[in-house]
Each structure stands twice: as C-alpha cells, then as structure tokens.
Amino acid sequence: MAPRPRELTPDRSARDLFGAEMRRFRERAGMSLESLADVLRYGKSSLARYETAEAMIPPDLPARLDAAFGSDGLFGKLYGLAKHEVHPDQFRRLMKLEAQARVIQEYTGQLMPGLLQTKAYARALFRFHYPKATSEGIEELVTARISRQALLHADPAPHFSLILDEAVLLRPFGTAETMREQLSRLVEEALTPTSIVQVLPFSHGGHALAGGSSKLMTFEDRTQAVWEENSVSGTLFEEKTVVDDRHRTYDLLRACALSPMDTASLIRRKMEELYS
User: Which PROSITE patterns does this entry report, sorted A to Z (predicted)?
Assistant: First the structure.
C-alpha cells in the first residue's frame, strides 16, 4: 500500500499553500508525480519535496507549472509570497533537513558544534544558557542534543566538514576534564572517511562569518540550504543566491584553515597547555 501523502496546511504558510495547489492541480489533471516530472523535466523526488513543502521552491518551477496547468500565473504569484516568507518552526525543520543531508559543512566561531559535543560539554553549555532549569530539564536537553549525533553514524553517513575558529578551543565550558574529553573528540573526527575538522587560526584575522555559525546542507537531489545562528536565534535560507554566496564564503575559510593533520596537532597542544 502506498504511503499517504503528507497532510498540508495551506493556511500555515505560503509554501504549504504552493504545495497544496500544486497537488490539487496535478490530481485534477490525473497526473502522477512521475508523469509531471516528465512534463516539467524535473526529478520526481524534488517535485515531491516541493509539493509537501519540505524544500524551498526553485525560481524556474512556478513558470513551468503555470505553463503545464494553464493556471494563469497562479504559481508565480504564490512563489512571490513564499520566497520572502520566514518558515514557521524553523528549528524543527532544521532537524529534519539535517537528517536528510548527504553533505554537511559547518563553521562555528564560539561553541563546539552540536553534532560533535560530548555529554559533559553539552551539559555545561546548557547550564549557562538555562540557569533556572532543573537537573532533569538539563538532562532532557542533553539527551536530545546527543541523539542528533546518530545521523553521523547512519548508513550511509553524510560527509561532515567542520571549520572551527581557534577561539572555540580556548573558551572552556565545564571542567578541564570536560574540555580534554571534548577536544579528544575533535581529534578523533579530524580526518575519517566521512569527516574533516579544520581550525581557522587567529592569524587569519576577520572574515564574513565571524560572530556566528553557519551550516550548509546538500541533499540527495542536489538542492541545498543554509542555517545561520547567533547567540539568540537562527535563520534557515534556501534561496539559491543566498546559498551560493554562503558556499563561496565557506570555501574561502576552508582554503585558509589549517589542514586536518595540523588541526589535530594544534588541538593536542591546546589540551596540554590549557587543560592538563
């Protein structure tokens, strides 16, 4: 039995409305996703994600849909609303996209990335962020964060690339033992078949991503998204022009970062100098 299509809520967002109208026109025309993919010359899996509002609509799709369905510019108008919309429940959506990504490229300038945090480091971090939380509440947050890391060990696992600002190594959270354990985790992931860790040294100076973090995700169908975060909020970007710009910035930082081997050597040195 075929799975039921995802329930859409057109009143929730312009993207959901676009997907609902796309499904309605397709079904009214008696077309399957496969047949629509042939007409539009798009991949079926990509169309399924647009129809279920799980991916940002590409700029050329609305005109193709209007031409295929004779919808008199309807999809073009809906796209005009959707592309400027801040998607609701963005963090929940980020978790879903992160789990679907085949390539994850991340820069972080202040904190260890959640995908590589140890339990002790995450616990110390949450105690600073939520000083009034109970011990049980903190442990729930730690468990949720650590559970996300399972995706790095999936089969197949995504390719994970991390650039750390040198400041992350010098800013302790928790005890010296906590930091040694955390830095050891970084060394373990510095160069594996599916992971690369590089440190951006202070000598590089200023750069476009200073002060925040950025996560670039590439999916099976080659679509991409970027999650940018500061100390109080995060934003998900899926427009191609924004994604391309962030990729260029990331590539520049990667070119200036230490190699994985030099990174591992620097991390070991900091472990001895600062947390012995």
Answer: HTH_CROC1
